[in-house]
Amino acid sequence: MTYQQQIGTATRLIGGQATWGGIDAEAVARMRLQNRFCTGLDIARYTAAIMRRDMAAYDADPSAYTQSLGCWHGFIGQQKMISIKKHFGTTDRRYLYLSGWMVAALRSEFGPLPDQSMHEKTKVSALIEELYTFLRQADARELSLLFRDLDKARAAGNAVEAQRLTQAIDGHQTHVVPIIADIDAGFGNAEATYLLAKTMIEAGACALQIENQVSDEKQCGHQDGKVTVPHEDFLAKVRACRYAFLELGVDDGIIVTRTDSLGAGLTKQIAYSKAPGDLGDQYNGFLDCEEVDVAQVGNGDVVISRDGKLLRPKRLPSNLFQFREGTGADRCVLDCITSLQNGADLLWIETEKPHIEQIASMVDRIRAVVPDAKLVYNNSPSFNWTLNFRQQVYDAWGEAGRDVSGYDRARLMSVDYDATDLGAEADERIRTFQRDAAARAGIFHHLITLPTYHTAALSTDALARTYFGEAGMLGYVEGVQRREIREGIACVKHQNMSGSDIGDDHKDYFAGEAALKAGGAHNTMNQFAA
């Protein structure tokens, strides 16, 4: 409904109650507009529809890819979306990513933890709820400013400005955007995955990202020691997520299946196979085995039969089984095709470097079977982007016969190469990486998993260096506050950002002239009005 329709609805409602004379219809309309999402499920349904539209738009035009940044606190997510609206005028195709890595490192009651699913799993759904609480508050704040300006225009008798502001209220775009939420490897069996998925969806998540690692051996995708599970085990968890979406009425919820097979050389179990060539047999076909006869089978050995031969998979002291070297890409392709054929909507291939042709070589094989396959890709801070792309340019130049004698491939990270032609070309490739990878490698969504972990550290380091040094208070004023004022950063008025003005509005609604409000002449935030 429009603003005026909301007022009309509230007027009729209040008019039917003899004891509600102190309730103002326009105040009710304003509060309803400031809180358009009453539950997390409302958010999940709304944002799932956004993602589905965006996926269809990408299928029609790969330049319409989407992006997100990982956020570890509601305030960080809120400020990100406020900044996006400020700079670009719209939140279209910009999402949030919830990183399990950052939950483990920053939100666990145990303190900082590695990305190994050791943190409290309820912290994930709690962060989703927190992020949306802050995004909804950003809506309330922005609309509050419009309502206050509308009141001023009316008081001044400026009907044209009042009409413009009414149209701005009707056209307000919410800060609430899709969250792709990391459910790790499901934090247990399929039932545990289902229970956690429900809490995440109820908190507002429209997209769940789940990986094919063993829950109790889960590792960060950019560390060694990753252990995968057979496809049937993984698909049970994918189905658990789908059941959770359907049970809660989020019929178009999105499941992102992540394969860590490219960097995972181990499996915890041999897959169950009923017939040659079935999914279990294909998984087992990647095992590193040696042919044996019955007399060579020792105590406790595990053997499998294939093509009339007896094979003994290589088994480590950890009781894990080893895959053959060089099978990672083939396993990734099988993982992805199998996931898409069993309910997944988007893929995530965790790679060891940002190389478009490496990604595309697997996507081409997947799309030969599932033509509309699309990826979510981790533009990870674990990659040394500068070094990787300078080495890619170095190698490309060498293959093209260009002289690279002035460059030391092992030292390409050096500042000595920042102003060189090679450095400039590498930076240009980094700049266009998302656009080029969306067009060539089927990447629908680009995210950076933990950028705000690094930005928080970097900005804190800069402030600590100046404030505790010779600059003293000038370190804060020059490096933070003055920049906030001149760059129009909303939270320079931190009292307003924290909801002080919204609270004053409510006091006015509730108590009228008797309200004791915080926003009077002596509020120091007035110093930032100029």
- What is the radius of gyration? 28 Å
Number of strands: 14
**SS element count, helices:** 19
- Secondary structure category: alpha/beta
How would you sum up the global shape?
Answer: globular
The largest pleated sheet is described as:
8 strands, parallel
| Beta-strand fraction estimate | 5-15%
* Euclidean distance between termini CA atoms: 36 Å
Strand order of the largest sheet: 12-6-4-3-2-1-14-13
Q: Mean pLDDT, as a whole number? A: 94
Low-confidence stretches: none
Offer a concise description of the structure:
The chain is of the alpha/beta class. The protein is built from 19 helices and 14 strands. The strands form three sheets. Strands 12-6-4-3-2-1-14-13 form an eight-stranded parallel β-sheet. A three-stranded mixed β-sheet has the order 5-7-11, with no helix packed on it.
Question: What does this protein look like?
Answer:
The chain is α/β, with parallel strands linked by helices. The chain contains 19 helices and 14 strands. Strand 1, helix 4 (74-88) and strand 2 form a beta-alpha-beta unit. Helix 6 (122-155) runs antiparallel to helix 7 and helix 8 (190-203) runs parallel beside helix 9 (231-247). The chain is globular and about 95 Å long. The mean pLDDT is 94.
